[in-house]
Amino acid sequence: MGFGSVKPSSEMLDFIRKSGGYAVLDGGFATELERYGANLNDPLWSAKCLIDSPHLVKRVHLDYLEAGADIIITASYQATIQGFEAKGFTTEESEALLLKSVEIAREARDIYYESVGNRTNLRKCPILVAASVGSYGAYLADGSEYNGDYGEAVILATLKEFHRRRVQVLAESGADLIAFETIPNKLEAQAYAELLEEDDIKIPAWFSFTSKDGVNVVSGDSILECASIADSCEKVLAVGINCTPPRFIHGLILSIQKATTKPILIYPNSGETYDAQTKEWIQSTGVSDVDFVSYVNKWHDAGASLIGGCCRTTPNTIRAISKTLSKGSAAQPSEPVTSLPIRYQLVK
Ligand SMILES: [Zn+2]
């Protein structure tokens, strides 16, 4: 199934409609890897497991699929060619590791489909694999993805150059879409939008920003301006917020709606705060799964249609979100989708 001349955002709306009015995203990926014993204290963070424990990456994808995720996000958040090269990998090996992140997610999806067997017919929609692209700040691994402060030396061209090859490789990887996650500022959103257009990227993308005050994105740039950049880019199929405390989500959904009619995605963290110095989450401020899930129908009613969790959320959170939305949603799938996952193809 190809997009033809149809806009990605309307294709996503169709996907959501077929899913019964919403789709469930997965939850914290690195969090789960750590729960399985992975040590992520490394500049590559979760991407380190692509090198030393791919079996855990597959396991975590499967856990989220079993918990009810309709869209799974690859372990490439902090996987960059520059980061792998710094570890001594060649450019070719680094690109192969990026591809591997998508291969593992696709394998997990195949295993899941096989495991549910005939019950696949009961699925409301195909499962999508979203190739994660974390921000430049995530590569720096100094916490600047949470303040968006890259200094004056980093200009639009720097960010485009930094991300270009990685985006090209992931676009040809067999993923269904690219998930630009935890975008901390306007400049990086602009860089992604220009790359998507100039490099004739053949798969669509979502733009997901991060906020720490519920008003602006973490750099202080206006969420309205950020969402407008996403709105203007035809290859962007959904716009939203991730890795942001649950208490800010409702207001941010209302703000994003002022800038775009594209589907809105939200996958908040647990509400705990990340300490970039100690590289630890401060536990005391978080909300429990029960509290988290109590917001979910409110977010859906406010207009979010793609809902999941980010750091410190778990398969239990996703299971609870899936259950809550299925109870709260009056809409039923309008038609069963029995085919294997669609591969989005943009034809210019
Ligand atoms: Zn996160």
From TrEMBL:
<dbReference type="InterPro" id="IPR036589">
    <property type="entry name" value="HCY_dom_sf"/>
</dbReference>
<keyword id="KW-0489">Methyltransferase</keyword>
<dbReference type="InterPro" id="IPR051486">
    <property type="entry name" value="Hcy_S-methyltransferase"/>
</dbReference>
<feature type="domain" description="Hcy-binding">
    <location>
        <begin position="11"/>
        <end position="325"/>
    </location>
</feature>
<feature type="binding site">
    <location>
        <position position="310"/>
    </location>
    <ligand>
        <name>Zn(2+)</name>
    </ligand>
</feature>
<dbReference type="GO" id="GO:0032259">
    <property type="term" value="P:methylation"/>
</dbReference>
<dbReference type="GO" id="GO:0008270">
    <property type="term" value="F:zinc ion binding"/>
</dbReference>
<dbReference type="GO" id="GO:0033528">
    <property type="term" value="P:S-methylmethionine cycle"/>
</dbReference>
<keyword id="KW-0479">Metal-binding</keyword>
<keyword id="KW-0862">Zinc</keyword>
<dbReference type="GO" id="GO:0008898">
    <property type="term" value="F:S-adenosylmethionine-homocysteine S-methyltransferase activity"/>
</dbReference>
<feature type="binding site">
    <location>
        <position position="243"/>
    </location>
    <ligand>
        <name>Zn(2+)</name>
    </ligand>
</feature>
<dbReference type="GO" id="GO:0009086">
    <property type="term" value="P:methionine biosynthetic process"/>
</dbReference>
<dbReference type="InterPro" id="IPR003726">
    <property type="entry name" value="HCY_dom"/>
</dbReference>
<keyword id="KW-0808">Transferase</keyword>
<feature type="binding site">
    <location>
        <position position="311"/>
    </location>
    <ligand>
        <name>Zn(2+)</name>
    </ligand>
</feature>
<dbReference type="Pfam" id="PF02574">
    <property type="entry name" value="S-methyl_trans"/>
</dbReference>
<dbReference type="InterPro" id="IPR017226">
    <property type="entry name" value="BHMT-like"/>
</dbReference>
<protein>
    <submittedName>
        <fullName>Homocysteine S-methyltransferase</fullName>
    </submittedName>
</protein>
